[in-house]
Design brief:
Blueprint (H helix, E strand, L loop, with lengths): L1 H7 L4 H6 L4 E6 L7 H7 L6 E6 L6 H4 L1 H12 L1
Parallel strand pairs: 1-2
Length: 78
């Protein structure tokens, strides 16, 4: 229970604000474990951030839309 309470109450505002590199969030539109509202709230805290919301995708967007995630990574590296 202690671990669950700790993990549910974790926040990363300070860490997000410290990011000095480009960040691309690829998020499933239908993510029920971490709703896209979380990504939208985090985005203004990231100096060089963008959000790619994948329609119809759930929490495991990296598995269901691996090409989309790969394209985001490639876009950062080019």
């Amino acid at each position: 229970r202690d671990i669950l309470v700790t993990s549910v109450n974790e926040t990363y505002e300070r860490e997000l604000g410290m990011l000095a590199c480009p960040v691309r969030l690829v998020w499933g539109e239908r993510d029920s474990a971490a709703p896209v509202a979380i990504a939208r709230a985090a985005l203004p805290m990231i100096a060089d951030g963008s959000l790619d919301v994948v329609p119809e995708a759930g929490h495991d967007v990296h598995l269901s839309h691996a090409g989309r995630v790969r394209a985001a990574i490639d876009g950062l590296l080019m």
